Amino acid sequence: MTIESAQGSSLPADENTLPLTATSQIIGRNTEWWRSAVIYQIYPRSFADSDGDGIGDLAGIAQRLPSLAKLGIDAIWLSPFFTSPQNDAGYDVADYCDVDPLFGTLDDFDRLEKEAHRLGLRVIVDLVPNHTSTDHKWFTEALEAGPGSPERARYLFRDGQGANGEFPPNNWQSVFGGAAWSRTTNPDGRPGQWYLHLFDSSQPDLDWTNPWVHEQFREILRFWLRRGVDGFRVDVAHGLVKAAGLPDFFAPAVEEGASTASMSQPVDVPYWAQPGVHEIYRDWHRVLEEFEGDRVLCAEAWVEPLSKLANWVRPDEMQQAFNFSYLETPWSGPEIRAIVDESIAAFGSVGAPSTWVLSNHDVIRHASRLGMNPPPPQGSGIGPKSEHRPDEAVGLRRARAASLMMLALPGSGYVYQGEELGLPEVIDLPDKARQDPTFFRHHGEKYGRDGCRVPIPWESDAPGYGFSPTGESWLPQPTDWQDYARDSQDGVPGSTLELYTLALRTRASYNLGLGTLEWVDGYGDDVVAFTNGDVTVLANTGTIAVELPLGEILAASEDITEAALPGDTTVWMLRRD
Ligand code: GLC
Asked: Is 49 left (phi over 0), alpha (psi -120 to 50) or beta?
C-alpha cells in the first residue's frame, strides 16, 4: 500500500509515514526524522533578496520556499542571520537572539518558519558557540571591565609573554591565517592583554570553562526552541574547549613556520577535539529534551578518523555530525567504497545515522572540485591566478554522478544551495569584490571561500538572475549563468534540477534514507555498486563503460542510450534478484 505525502511523492506506508494534511502537524511526531532527512543549506546572503539591497534576506527566502518543497527536501538549515557586523558573513555574532537588519526582523523569521512548516519543511538554525563578534556586548563589557574581572573571564584573555607582554601567550595560529591572538589597548592607550581568536581577530573565543558561558548558551537554545526551530547546526563543534594551560602546539607544520592552522589536523591539537566538549553536548541534548517533538543537533566538527567523530553523536550527545571525510574523498571507486564502509561502521557503532555531504559554504563547489586533480585544500579557494583551474565539463558530469550516488546512501544527506542547479565555483571574482577574511589575512595569497557564495540564479533573463529585484548582488554574478537559472532547468528533461528532483522523489518512495547498503561485486574497481532495498546503484568513476544489468532504470545522471554505463555516470535501477 502507498499513501501520498505532503510533497506528492509516493511513500510506502508504515508507522513513520502518516498522511500529512496540515503539514505543520509534523512537529511533535517522534519520528527521528533526521535519520533519513535530506537537509538543504540556505546561505541567507546569497539565496534570495526581497528588498533589492543585493544581500539576500529572510523575506526573500520565505517567498522562494515553494521551490524547495517542490524539489523534495525535508528540512532547511539557515546559515547565520543574527545581528552581526558581517566580518565573517555572519559567523561573527553580536546578538544571538535577534535578526540582523540586513536580513529582516524576528517577525520575518517567524513568518519564514511558519511558511516552511506549512510546506512540510523543518527548520534548522546555525549556532556559533566557539566565538562571538568583538561587537557583542559580552566582549565590549569585558574590554571595559579590565583584567581579572568576571567579564574578562567570559573569553580567553591572557597576559602576553616577554618583559612587556609584547609576545602572544602561545604559538597558536588562526584558521584564517596569522596569529590566533590579538592585543588589546588599555583605556590609557597602553598595550594591554591579548585575547584568543581561532578565526578572525573580530571573533574572540569564549572560555567554555566558565559556567556563565554555559548558562548563556542554554538560554540561547531555549530562545530558538521556543520559537519552534527543529534543530541547530553547531559551528566549530570540535573547538569550544581548549587544553588546560593553553600549551604551545608543536605540530611539524607550525615549527616549520607555516602561516596557518587548518580546521582539522592529523595530530593532537590543543584547541581541537578536546574531551571536555562532550559534556557540553550532553547538556544541550537535555535542553532539547525539555521541548516536545524531535529536534536535532548537527556537529560541524572537522575530526578524523570517523571513529573519533562518532563520539559527537553518541546517544546522549548530538544526533548528527557532518561527514567531511566523505566530502574530501576523491572521485575514485576504491576510496569511495572505503569511506562509505568506514562511515556506516563508525556512526553505526553508536547508533547514529551517517550523514553525507559534498558541498557547503566553506568548500569549493563539487561541480568544480571534482574537475580538479588534486583540488586545493579546504578554505584555499581558486581564483584568477590559481595554477590549476577545474575542467568544468568533467566537474559537472562527475558532480551529477556523485550527487546521484550520495542521495542513494542510507542516512541523512546535505545539499548546499545551488548544487541542484549544477552551479560551479566562481573563479574570476575581482580582488576588490572578495570578502572572505581568509583572503585578507593571507594578503591575497589564498582566495578563500567567496567563489562558492555567489548569489544563486533563479530566472535566466531577470536582472541579477532574479536573485534581487534591482539586480544588485553583494558578490558579482557571472554573466553566463543563464543556463544554470532555475527557470531554465525547471521541467527540462536531463537538467541537473530535474535530476535532483527525481532522485529525491525516488529516494523517498523507496525509503532509501532508512535502508541498508550491500555491496555488489563484479563490476571492477572503478564502479561503486551497491543495493539499498529495492534499488541497485552503479556509479562508474572510471572512463571505460561497463555493461548494465537488465532492468528498469529509475534515475541516471546522464542519458543512457545503450545497455552500458559510461564513465563518470551513476544509475539507479530497480533491483532484480
Ligand atoms: C565554520 C563556518 C565558517 C566560519 C567558521 C568560523 O567553519 O562554517 O563559515 O568561517 O566556522 O565561524
From this structure: beta
